[in-house]
Amino acid sequence: MSINFQNTNRLNALANLLSGNVLPVTSDGSELSLLSKLYAISTWIIVLIYTSGCVIAIFRVSKEYALRECTVNLTIVVEVFFNIFHMYHQRDLLKRLIDNYNLLFSMGNDLLKTTVVTYIGPVEKMLKFYAITEVCTVVFWVSKSLVTVFQKEEFVHEDYALPISFSEEPISRNVYIVNVVVEIFGSGYLIFKKVSADIYTLHLILLLTSQYKYMKMKFGMIFRRKDNSSKSRYQSDRVIEKELDSLFRHHSVVVRSTIMLKEILSFNVCVVHLDSVFRFCFLSFMLAMNMTVDIEGCILISYTVAAILQLYIICFYVQELFEMGSILADDAFHEEWYSCELLVRKNFRIMIHANKLKCQLAPCQSVDLSLPSFMQIINQAYSACLLFLKMK
């Protein structure tokens, strides 16, 4: 079976559809049926209603309660709206990138297919855990507001797990229940949109990294098969030259894809980096203020663990993309490429120099996503949390 951008990660396609993000998964845009558009519009309407209620509630609760309960939600809102709408703005470029990926798959062979499938498979399992945990914990956290329905007749904004406001206090029971239902659907779609965007972004990165892994192995295999006997040396060099020409064409498409990916994700990487600092800062603040071993504490810890896992996964695979783009010719360099004809050696040296191009997605290292950046984000979030705790 042939592979393409859409069928290499079923989770990405499913999450993209159910979340209502409808980001491109094919180069022709055929997935955007009328039903998909209507569903996407309805999910955004729900999220906008929910977001407006949350923003209004910030000004109707105490500052301490707003800092503890509203800030994490606000950081998610900022990340979702900035990143997804930026991708909508880059839709044409995304389709061109997907077209390049599909072209690379058509140029490849069984080795490329095996490399892509075995590379993405384990990551997909981790992303399933992340997606289920994030969505379920947020929905459970918001749903706990329903417990107070049978405890009183009138309610205030601080009775909500995540403060939301569409009317003045006191709030009647019926209005309270309706608001909680809106909050459940709104927060569920909001976090699902974030999860889906994260999976989509990571899928773009993984497919590019798998191309570098394939080319690295292919380069080594080409020179490893070289026959140094005088009788077949000429014929062997012709075969190597032919295979290298094919691989150079493959590499040129990968380089174009890398440039496109950087143009698409450079803004998103900066947003995720900065937003993650504030999100983990406020999560740490919530954990410090809710140090109780109960259901609420378990939900909060589960959400935090899943959020840290998500950030680590992205940083790890961005780091791997950076490294794979730097060691592309390493396997081949240790083979007998130097005994080939002059044209082959010249082409290989060109490849070694091209290999020095770094696959860095961010415009600068200070707001990059990599393993050093992961520790930097955690340290900055911890320092900011300590500052808020001292100011409390």
Summarize this, please?
The chain has helices at 10-18, 34-58, 63-69, 71-89, 91-107, 110-143, 173-224, 233-289, 295-324, 330-333, 342-354, 371-391, and strands at residues 154-155, 171-172. The protein has 392 residues and is an all-alpha fold. It has a two-stranded antiparallel ribbon.
Question: Overview of this structure, please?
Answer:
The protein has 392 residues and is mainly α. It contains 12 helices and 2 strands, in the order ααααααββαααααα. It is elongated, with a radius of gyration of 25 Å. The mean pLDDT is 84. It is found in: Cell membrane. It is a multi-pass membrane protein. InterPro entries: 7tm6_olfct_rcpt.
Strands, helices and their partners?
Layout: H1 10-18, H2 34-58, H3 63-69, H4 71-89, H5 91-107, H6 110-143, E1 154-155, E2 171-172, H7 173-224, H8 233-289, H9 295-324, H10 330-333, H11 342-354, H12 371-391
Antiparallel strand pairs: 1-2
Helix pairs in contact: 1-7, 2-7, 4-7, 4-8, 5-8, 6-7, 6-9, 7-8, 7-9, 8-9, 8-11, 8-12, 9-12
